[in-house]
Amino acid sequence: MNPKMGNLIYAGKAKDVYETDDPELVIVKFRDDITAGDGVKTENFVKKGFYNSIISSKFFEVLEEAEIKTQYIKLIKPGYMLCKKLEMIPLEVITRNIAAGSLLKKFPFKTKQELNPPIIQMDYKNDEYHDPMLNDSITIALDLANQEQLDMIRDITIKINNVLKDFLLGKNILFPDFKIEYGFDNHGNIVLGDEISPDTCRFWDSKTSEVLDKDLFRKGESGVMDAYIKVASRILAKEDLKKWNIENLESEF
Question: Do 64 and 112 belong together in one domain?
Answer without folding.
Answer: no
